[in-house]
Design a protein that fits this description.
Length: 333
């Protein structure tokens, strides 16, 4: 598939926004809107999965295996580091239970014994619970005739959200999978279908959507407005729609550093909090201003993510890809 540079730019920006959010939060400042990077990731995920599955069809099982190989190994490694750190006392506020550990490793939403939140051991891994839920339902949709797949997905995801609005479930599993945020995946898939059909806005309207979305996110941060997926979701959809519209026009330049950070965005997302925690602890007793601490922590978190991308994610991905190829290639006979 052709690389969509606009999608790579958005992945990079979304990851860096989350890094800044955590760096500011841990250092006593705030950059709340950085958390909306998750909304952008979810819309992008829906877009990529839909376009990829249409252009490069695979079986539902193969799709799930590919997704698990892509997501799980790095996540399990970082989770293992967190567990080891808690065991030896590096994270004194972290409490561990067997159910929480296994739920975290298996992408099953469970409540953290540390604070009662529906978080895995690696806190930012909560988004991967949603991703895996989406992948499972997406794989199931592959069993439908192609013309019914998108409609079927919309109906199922809407039914989950409606059930949540009516029943207000308290169990971690149902409380997670009935949140309106899951509709962002479906919105991304709809954008993917529009992309494949060529039904996109021109460069001017696309740029206007990007600017309007960025201004919306900025207004939430500057004005201190409350926000959740009901506000950030539409802004994220507008941002992705605007970016790919500009790219469709052929007027989007190639920016190598952003392309690279987009490729490394998953590792940056997973690993950055480890570096941020170290930086914050090191400077805890110093008079360094919180903004400076947040900046150094954000840079450190990004660099750790880039190193993990080169030293962990890429080698693992290549090895697993080669293993899968050896196991599935046809016999010479």
């Amino acid at each position: 598939m052709k690389t969509l540079y606009g999608i790579q730019y958005l992945r990079a920006v979304a990851a860096l926004a989350v890094v800044l959010f955590h760096a500011a939060e841990r250092s006593g400042g705030h950059f709340r809107i950085g958390a909306a990077g998750v909304d952008v990731f979810f819309v992008i995920s829906g877009f990529i999965m839909w376009t990829m599955s249409v252009r490069r069809p695979v079986t539902p099982v193969r799709f799930l295996v590919d997704r698990l190989q892509r997501i799980a190994p790095s996540y399990w490694i970082v989770t293992a580091i967190m567990i080891a750190g808690a065991v030896i006392g590096l994270f004194p506020s972290m409490k561990l239970t067997a159910s929480h550990i296994f739920g975290s490793l298996l992408f099953i939403p469970v409540r953290s014994p540390s604070n009662g939140e529906i978080w895995p051991v690696l806190v930012q891994g909560w988004t991967l619970n949603f991703e895996m839920f989406f992948y499972v339902l997406f794989a199931a949709s592959m069993l439908l005739p192609h013309r019914a797949r998108l409609v079927g997905m919309i109906a199922v995801f809407a039914a989950f959200v409606a059930a949540g609005a009516i029943l207000h479930p308290q169990s971690p599993l149902l409380a997670t999978y009935t949140r309106p945020i899951i509709l962002e995946f479906v919105a991304g898939a709809i954008l993917g279908q529009l992309w494949l059909k060529g039904n996109f806005a021109g460069a001017g309207l696309g740029l206007a959507l990007v600017i309007a979305s960025v201004c919306g996110f900025a207004a939430i941060e500057i004005l201190g407005l409350e926000f959740d997926e009901t506000t950030c979701g539409p802004l994220a959809v507008a941002l992705v729609l605007g970016m790919v519209s500009v790219e469709r026009s052929g007027r989007l330049p190639q920016i190598a550093p952003l392309i690279y950070l987009g490729n490394a965005s998953y590792s940056i997302y997973l690993w950055h909090t480890l570096a941020i925690s170290v930086v914050v602890k090191v400077v805890a007793s110093t008079p360094i201003p919180s903004d400076a601490v947040a900046f150094v922590a954000a840079i450190s978190g990004t660099l750790l993510g880039v190193c993990a991308y080169e030293l962990v994610e890429k080698p693992l991905r290549n090895r697993l890809r080669n293993f899968s190829w050896r196991r599935t290639r046809p016999s010479p006979a």
